[in-house]
Amino acid sequence: MKTTIREERKKEIIRGFYDLSRLEGMENVSIAKIGKHLGMPPSLIMHYFPNKRLLVLGLISHILHQYQLIYKPIINKFEKDHKVYPELLVNRLFSREWNLLFDDGVFFSCFAMTFRDETIKREYMKLHLKLRDTLKSILDRDPVFSKGDTALLAEKIFVVIEGAYYYLSLIGDEKEYNRKLNIFKDQVFQLLKLESQLILEDSE
Length: 204
Prior knowledge:
Elements: H1 2-24, H2 31-38, H3 42-48, H4 52-68, H5 72-81, H6 86-93, H7 97-101, H8 104-112, H9 118-140, H10 150-168, H11 174-203
Helix pairs in contact: 1-2, 1-4, 2-3, 4-9, 6-11, 9-10, 10-11
């Protein structure tokens, strides 16, 4: 019971840290401000997170949990039909729901710290690898894609996704954003199409 209460309290503090970071910018958030926001004494927050660096590490774990939700409709559809639908996969991977699941500004504020902190860098690497591994596990269960190199395919897809999201975050014009988005989505469609064609040709 104590462990459950402890974990729930830590999650509450991380969510409070995230909410304030989204509103005020992570660099402007202090433990005192989090305490005021949550209505708890700063000493209680420091009991769980003695410094802001540990809060950031907790926030990275929260990012991963949120981003994993992007896969849920793909997994649910697969469990029903036992195949991966490229259109659903691409639309989910390029969904603006990423932005709803976690704020871009907070994500990049955390990411900037990877250049100064090796532990945070390692945690960010784990986050990226886990997203790739989850995609690989989905491809591994598909009757066609499972016959190919799913790790390499997942890596190629995420190279496009990550580059696309960084670039798209700079575009303010809605029409231009959608035009570029469709270009990136088509790149991933072509990757999936080429991979399935090569696998089918090899199996003949």
